[in-house]
Amino acid sequence: MNGFANAAFLRAAASPADLPPEGPPEIAFAGRSNVGKSSAINALLGRRGLARTSKTPGRTQTLNFYELGEHARLVDLPGYGFARVPLELRAQWRSLVGGYLASRATLCAVVLVMDARHPLTPLDLQLVEWLQASPRVAPFIVLLAKSDKLTRAAQAETLRAVRSRLPSATVELFSSITRQGVAEARDLLQHVLQAGPPNKKPPVKGI
Predict the structure, then answer these.
(1) What CATH fold (topology level) applies to the domain 3-195?
(2) In this structure, are residues 13 and 63 in contact, taking their beta carbons and an 8 Å threshold?
């Protein structure tokens, strides 16, 4: 059974008290506001509108959990770096997201979604630095979203540059429009989920 084909929305968490109980392995998706996290999740799940997308940066204000059957979960984290969001709300998001990433025992990996046209922004690198220092969230994966906006030559150069800058990460080109990299990313996530969280690797079936 393909769990990606049986995905369903589970819960939106606006505070630590709202988090669902720890259960199956989880993969979290992080990225700058409006970079295409929700579109990437929809492409991976083969569902057009399951993860809500918006042209308004800062719209995702909660941790949104999606079940892949009974065996795994994907988590859409609030986007970072949108200046118009009130400072108090941004601080609340940082606390919620940071607490989740640092303490969630069932977290297997983080997928960092970057805009292929503008990768490695200071905010991206700040999160990368934090992830590399946290044993709970290794490994992490970079999806260079909106790669369809680049020529093939530019795609190859961007991929080379990001892989060179982030040698410990898995970096792949990705487009929710052309579906470039979707099958490859799905296979990669299946492998990570089957391996389980770092230092705790229970077998996962049916993903």
Answers:
(1) Rossmann fold (3.40.50)
(2) yes
Q: How far apart are CA 2 and CA 183, in angstroms?
A: 13
Is 0.90 topped by the overall pTM?
A: no
Per-residue pLDDT band for 152 (boundaries 50, 70, 90) equals very high
- Any idea which residue has 């220092």 for tokens? 133
Q: Which two tokens stand for residue 54?
A: 């918006």
* 185, 199 contact by CB (below 8 A): no
Q: Are 185 and 44 in contact (CB under 8 A)?
A: yes
User: Which pLDDT score, from 0 to 100, does residue 206 have?
Assistant: 46
What is the side-by-side order of every strand in the sheet holding 72-76? 7-13, 63-68, 72-76, 26-31, 107-115, 140-145, 170-173
- What does DSSP say about strands 7-13 and 63-68: parallel, antiparallel, or unpaired? antiparallel
Question: 104-133, pLDDT tens digit by residue?
Answer: 999 999 999 999 999 999 888 988 887 887
Closest residue by Cα to residue 36 from 79, 96, 97, 85? 79
Count CB-CB contacts under 10 A for residue 17.
6
